[in-house]
Specification:
The complex is a heterodimer of chains A (325) and B (536). By secondary structure, chain A is of the alpha+beta class. Chain A has helices at residues 22-42, 49-52, 67-74, 76-79, 118-135, 153-181, 184-208, 214-244, 250-260, 262-282, 288-316; strands spanning 46-47, 54-59, 85-90, 100-105, 145-151, 211-212. In chain B, α4 crosses α5. The chains are: A alpha+beta (325), B alpha+beta (536).
């Protein structure tokens, strides 16, 4: 009765020559990295409020807004001296619910006599809120406001700096740990794979112009963790096999180790994907970007631990003669 | 790897029971929680503001004000000290510094030591004095520049923030019953979090007002002098001009207050005894009563101005000496604005202006939506992963992995409740992610067992070897993920920290449940069933 175990039908003892295609993989990875960097430098990222500053106000009218409503609200911006307003409706999964409006006011320059622009943002929020309430009195009800977020240059600049610091700090700490646990070639290989993942994730956000905010930084750090998890499992097996098969050429040992851990790599990617898909589909709009970044990250993280982290060891060589404990 | 001593089993089961116990209050209704006997934990998960709704405001203290005020009082002190010793010098404040110009060399020689004496230890109680209050620079033989020292600014900023926090607490929560966070954040900010805040505008207006109240003597002047003062900022010494609240233009008053808000004991809103307009009543403290009594008895028939935050509310005539220690302000109030002003006066004036550097407000509706979405996503993710594990490893080993997974979730909830950690929206993402990643350790182990079986080992041997050889990669893999999560915790801010917390706890618990709890189940099953062949 315990016969449904599907893993038994997985091909046993696979011998896929992963390292054979290492050149193709390398070209692919390098191209993707160049494309990502190119996109990032030319198109940059669609920074969200966290890093850009400004005002985002989410509210709803008593009825779902029509195009005329949206137009009327959008037209308020120039009259108030706030510049162009970005406006969109937020889809509610629940059909009975009134669609909400997400209104973004770009960051306003500092008021005269002020040292920073914090106050200018608050003034902008107040003026747009008053103007909208004048058109639609029901918006004055507190329960019609879903959320308000206001950030000036100072705080958003700090968040950006902190985010970059976090990613770099995490990469460094991980490098040190791997160095400590393995040899330096492994540490370098792991960090190369991680950097690859981070750059490609930034690239995909630049390409899709999806909003890049604090939770995406969290996703990137988690991708670092996940990709590393994968890489370490492969590395661990490489280390084990290097001791077991002292005479085998390095390329064969690497291939063998990847194949040994392949079923685990696939299964874990699948379970993580399952959870992330649930998050992406049902987790609500607040977690959409995060889930998307993670799904992409699981994909590139799995790829990089096989096609980046392992081949780099071949490139750098591994010390097989030293004292092996 | 497969032998568990009795005390070890007790310990493992005990840990799980403890986790269950701490997680339990989260699924009970409030009523059932209250009915729990006192020795049982009744604490539930704290929901972050993004989930329960509320206002999050990061306030920045405008120190420029404080520095200016300090310079003004230093200038007054210095001028008095120099005058006392008959040193002639002109003192002027410009660009956040006092510029002192002596008349001649003899004055400078006499004056510089007097000037230096004004710079005292910032904090008399601090070890080594904590630095001097002023920095004196020599610009030329006769010109000197005096600035407020860094140590003094730091001291000033600390004191300002502490006072601001006290005042804000009294203003927002006069009864002391609201649940809120009001704390210093970093060097120059105040974090204010009010869960479930209904009206953020009200909150903001309370923060916005410094509520600096002063009664000033009105200065007699003419239009030319007044215009020079208002338009060109060239006021006669010791006088300033303020606009009147109800139009009526500017009015010149003496800069020094007769009494200030600090001289009031209490205030309350009320109605004017004759015309029934809303007014603000107040009671002076002893010092304030005496000062006001002295002043009014000397200036009968003259007007005085009531100035609030740089605006003249009213300027009544003094009809006779007011010595009763009581009074009221009238100034076309509504009942609400009278109530607000009396509340502000009771809480005291803010020592400096506060700017809102960051605002994040979430309405309760959005928070509830987020919780529901999170619940649905985590349930479906959990079910998906569980079915996947059953399909992959069969009922026997799939169940082991799934029980480990369920235990993991319970332990996360228990740990979060125990730590009093705050569950945020990203925190929910962390839990869902953990659901997907937690089975990894079990997958690693099961795959290793399968491999060892293929290599010709018997069931017991294969399982034992599988667990033994999987330990290193499991630890390495999870410690590195933990490093990333902890980095996020220490560098991240706000809700992102919530993500780091759930992810970190999830990682630790997943290792425990996979390596210890699932192993215990496997070992127990092996001992009883003694299978000839493993069902994976």
């Amino acid at each position: 009765m315990f016969d449904i175990s599907l893993v038994r039908h997985l091909p046993k003892d696979t011998k896929i020559p992963f390292l054979k295609v290492r050149l193709v993989a390398m070209v692919l990875s390098v191209l993707a990295i160049i494309a990502s960097i190119f996109l990032f430098t030319t198109k940059n990222l669609n920074y969200g409020l966290d890093f850009k500053g400004g005002t985002v106000w989410e509210f709803h009218l008593d009825e779902s807004p029509t195009d005329a409503d949206l137009g009327a609200i959008r037209d308020l911006g120039p009259g108030l001296g706030l510049g162009e307003l970005a406006i969109q409706t937020i889809g509610q999964s629940d059909k009975d619910k009134v669609q909400a409006i997400r209104l973004s006011v770009s960051k306003q320059p500092a008021l005269e006599g002020d040292e920073n622009d914090d106050k200018a943002q608050q003034v902008a929020l107040k003026s747009i809120q008053n103007a909208v309430v004048e058109l639609y009195p029901e918006v004055a009800k507190t329960e019609n406001t879903l959320s308000v977020q206001v950030l000036g240059t100072k705080v958003s600049g700090e968040l950006k700096k902190k985010g970059i610091e976090a990613v770099i700090a995490a990469l460094l700490m991980v490098l040190i740990y791997i160095w400590f646990r393995f040899e330096w070639q492994f540490g370098l290989g792991a960090v190369a794979a991680l950097t690859h993942d981070v750059i490609l994730t930034i690239g995909v956000f630049s390409f899709t112009a999806l909003e890049f905010n604090l939770s995406i930084v969290a996703a990137i750090l988690t991708i670092v963790g996940y990709s590393l998890n994968d890489t370490v499992v492969v590395y661990d097996r490489i280390r084990e096999n290097l001791r077991k098969f002292k005479k085998k050429p390095l390329e064969q040992v690497l291939d063998m180790s990847i194949n040994d851990t392949l079923s685990r790599t696939i299964l874990t990617s699948l379970t993580t994907m399952l959870a992330l898909l649930a998050l992406y589909i049902w987790g609500g709009p607040g977690l959409n970007g995060f889930a998307f970044a993670m799904i992409w990250g699981v994909f590139v993280g799995t790829y990089s631990s096989i096609f980046v982290a392992a081949p780099i060891l071949l490139l750098l060589g591994v010390n097989r003669k030293g004292p092996q404990k | 790897m497969l032998h568990f001593s009795r005390w070890k089993i007790t310990l493992i089961l005990g840990a799980i029971m403890l986790g269950l116990l701490f997680a339990l209050p989260n699924v009970l209704s409030e009523k059932a929680r209250e009915a729990l006997p006192g020795f049982l934990p009744s604490q539930t998960l704290n929901l972050g503001l993004d989930l329960q709704g509320g206002a999050h405001l990061l306030l920045e203290v405008d120190l420029k004000d404080g520095v200016e005020k300090t310079l003004k009082s230093e200038l007054a002190g210095m001028r008095a000290a120099l005058r006392e010793d008959r040193v002639s010098a002109t003192l002027r404040i410009r660009d956040e510094a006092i510029f002192v110009t002596y008349k001649n060399a003899a004055d400078a020689e006499k004056g510089v030591p007097i000037m230096r004496k004004q710079s005292v230890a910032v904090d008399a109680n601090a070890l080594g004095g904590g630095g001097k209050t002023l920095v004196i620079e020599k610009l030329s033989d006769l010109r000197y520049k005096v600035t407020v020292s860094k140590a003094n600014i730091e001291y000033l900023s600390n004191r300002t923030i502490e006072q601001s926090i006290q005042v804000l607490r009294k203003r927002i929560d006069p009864s002391g019953t609201t649940e809120m966070t009001l704390a210093k954040e970093g060097a120059e900010r105040i974090l204010l979090q009010v869960p479930g805040a209904k009206n953020v505008d009200e909150l903001k207006s309370v923060i916005d007002k410094t509520a600096k109240l002063g009664f000033h003597q009105v200065a007699v002047t003419d239009d030319v002098v007044l215009r020079l003062c208002v338009e060109d900022d060239q006021c006669p010494l010791g006088k300033v001009a303020y606009p009147q609240k109800n139009g009526g233009g500017y009015m010149m008053v003496f800069d020094r207050e007769i009494v200030t808000g600090a001289d009031l004991k209490s205030s309350s809103e009320g109605l004017h005894p004759q015309n029934n307009y809303p007014i603000v009543n107040f009671v002076y403290n002893a010092r304030g009563a005496r000062k006001f009594c002295d002043f009014t008895s000397k200036h009968v028939g003259e007007p005085f101005a009531v100035v609030l935050d740089g605006e003249i509310i009213t300027a009544p005539n003094i009809n006779g000496a007011i010595c009763g220690g009581r009074g009221f302000i009238e100034g076309s109030f509504t009942m609400e604005s009278a109530k607000e002003l009396s509340l502000l006066l009771n809480a005291g004036a803010l020592p400096a202006k506060l700017n809102i550097a960051e605002e994040r407000t979430v309405g309760p509706e959005l928070g509830a939506d987020s919780i529901n979405a999170g619940k649905v996503a985590s349930m479906l993710g959990l079910v998906g992963v569980a079915i996947f594990m059953w399909l992959s490893y069969g009922l026997r080993f799939g169940t082991f992995a799934n029980i480990a997974l369920a235990t993991n979730i319970v332990l996360i909830a228990g740990a979060l409740s125990l730590l009093g950690a705050t569950l945020t929206l990203p925190g929910i993402a962390g839990i869902i992610l953990t659901i997907g990643m937690a089975v990894d350790a079990n997958v690693l182990i099961f795959e290793r067992i399968r491999e060892e079986t293929q290599n010709g080992r018997g069931p017991i041997n294969a399982i034992d070897t599988g667990y033994r050889l999987s330990l290193a990669p499991i630890l390495d893999a999870n410690i590195t993920t933990l490093i990333a999560a902890l980095t996020l915790y220490f560098v991240g801010s706000g809700p992102i920290r919530g993500f780091a917390v759930t992810l970190s706890i999830g990682i630790v618990m997943s290792v425990f449940t996979a390596v210890v709890v699932a192993r215990l189940m496997t070992a127990t099953w092996l001992r009883h069933a003694r299978p000839k062949k493993l069902p994976i």
